[in-house]
Design a protein that fits this description.
166 residues; alpha+beta; Chemotaxis protein chec; 8-stranded antiparallel sheet; two-stranded antiparallel sheet; 3 helices
Length: 166
Amino acid sequence: MRVEYINPFSEAAYGVLKEVLAVDVKRGDLYLKPTNMTIMGVAAMVGLAGEVEGRVLFDMTKDTALFVANTMSKVAGIMADGEEFKEMNADAKAVITELANMITAQAVTKLHDLGFKFDLTPPALFTGDNMEVSSNMGSTVEALIVPMDLGGKGKIEVNVVIRERT
C-alpha cells in the first residue's frame, strides 16, 4: 500500500475530528492488522473502486460513538445542552455516518488533486458485538491502522485497505 493513499486519510481524520469534537486529538503509531478483523462495536465503512480499490473503516466502541454523536450534535447546534443520545438510535447512527462522509470527502479531494481517480460507495454503518469485517482482497493485503485518541474520550481507528487495481 502506497503512503500517498494513507496520508490524506490520516490528515483528514485528524483535522475533521479536531474541528467537530473540539478535543485534543492525538494520532498514535501506525500498525498493521489482518483485513479479516472484529470491529470494536461501531464502524462506518466506505468502499473505493476505480484505479484503486479497497475500503476505509472508521472503527470505535459504542461509548466512543455516543461521545462523538453527542459532541458533534452539540457543536453543530443540533442538540441543546442537557440533551444526549443514550443509545445508538437512527439519529446517532446518522451522525457517525456523516463523520465518515466528512473525513472521506476531504481525503478523496486530496487524492484527486494528486491524480488518483476512483469512486466511493456511500458509508455503511455496522453496530454490534463480535462482528467481523472481512475482505476478498487476498491474504497478502493487510489493513493499515491509524489510531486517533480523542483526548481521553475514546479512540477511533482509521482502518485503510487500498491497492492499485490490477
